[in-house]
Amino acid sequence: MTQFTDLGLAEPILRALTDEGYESPTPIQSEVIPAMIEGRDVLGIAQTGTGKTASFVLPILNRIIEENQRPQPKTCRALILSPTRELSAQILENVRGYGRHMRISTTLVVGGVKPGPQIRALSKGVDVLVATPGRLLDLMQSGAIRLNETRTLILDEADQMLDLGFFPAIRKIVGHLPAKRQTALLSATMPKPIRALAHEMLDDPKQVSVAPASRPIERIEQSVVLLPKESKKDLLLELMSDRAVERAIVFSRTKHGADKINRHLVDYGLKSAAIHGNKSQAQRIKALDGFKTGAVKILVATDIAARGIDVDDVSHVVNHDLPNIPEAYVHRIGRTARAGKSGVAVSMCEPGEYEYLRDIERLTGLNIERVFVGDEAKFLAEARNATPAASQKKQSRPSGKKRPFTADGGGRPQGQARGQSGARNAGGNGGGQGGGSKRPRRRARTGSAAPVRA
Length: 454
Ligand code: AMP
Known about the structure:
The protein folds into two domains: 4-209, P-loop containing nucleotide triphosphate hydrolases (Rossmann fold, 3-Layer(aba) Sandwich), CATH 3.40.50.300; 220-453, Rossmann fold, CATH 3.40.50.300. 36% of the residues lie in helices and 15% in strands. The chain has 16 helices and 14 strands. It has helices at residues 11-20, 27-37, 52-67, 85-98, 116-123, 133-141, 158-163, 167-175, 192-201, 232-241, 255-267, 281-293, 303-306, 326-333, 354-364, 376-385; strands spanning 42-45, 76-81, 106-109, 126-131, 152-155, 182-187, 206-209, 220-226, 248-251, 272-275, 298-301, 316-319, 343-349, 369-372. The longest helix has 16 residues, at 52-67. Residues 391-454 have low confidence and may be disordered.
């Protein structure tokens, strides 16, 4: 088995890895680190949980040690672009952690906070800059930072950056970097626009594709409760009141929905906080810190806000709404069962979300344990007549040609795109899914090995 000492990393980095307690590199690290140390570009398909962050951070640090130069004012030597503030902050934390035995200057440039401190931090120049594209572009335009000295560029979570509409900003940013540079692009999926971007920006890249190192999905006890929309609130309270819940993330498809769910939980006396894109940076930090320390037991989140959350002891993930993009399901439930632990993921599916459930099962190749609350035949009849609950929302990658990832890292065909579904066009407006019992008939279990039963 490859060891960190085989990869060509400098001693201060190896020491930091020993401090972290890492015994050996993950598969993506074994491939990406030597390639980047050789100076090659990299195109990686990898999700969070594979150790991908260290795979690009460690070679950056190694290069900084080898080159042993101070950065010029208002420049950075390495630039890491990521889609969200949280993920950027987490990457920066990693850079500082792995760089703790070396002299290194780092800073974070993200939106939602005043630019003044960021501009001051950049004025002397930094070794490693972690940024979200929008704010970085603003600071470039105001002259606070120039990228003509940047030798390494990382584009992390490229598919998420595509979804958020960052590609024009990325193209502008990259236009200011020297042509002679090292670039790595990482993405959980590889739809066409990302391949095209990679083609534009990478030079003969080493291509790496890995399944999640720990395959957390296999350790997650998954179930889906099929129920009328109006029963969701009660079921959520039941699930969240269970003593087996130590720390839970509840996912909502919309920001507004996240606020409503959070208010509902707080009104019930549960320690809950919401995190989404309309919250200020201070509110987001407060919610995340509270969640990490345990002061907040339940975090209600949208997909984008949750992307960067790396907290080890999340015992439960609840999908209050099923995501309309099936990959998001895998990302969501992967928030539990981290660091070798097991976890419970319960999803709620109203009739209008049934198509999403089918998409998720096609993508993952799983038959998720189903529990009906109320009348099964009635639910299925309503599902057949329902418009998907979020059909009016944009489909981020409408081509349906995403490279699917699956529980075993393989590439099963994804099946038909949602737009081709017969159910979608069968009428109805997604509302009015009345009927069924108001309350789940029996308590859904959250802590045992058995799936939820109704
Ligand atoms: P990432 O995929 O970068 O989000 O990393 C997922 C988790 O794996 C993080 O909590 C890292 O601290 C951890 N990790 C990264 N590399 C290793 C390694 N070689 N051995 C054990 N854990 C690791």
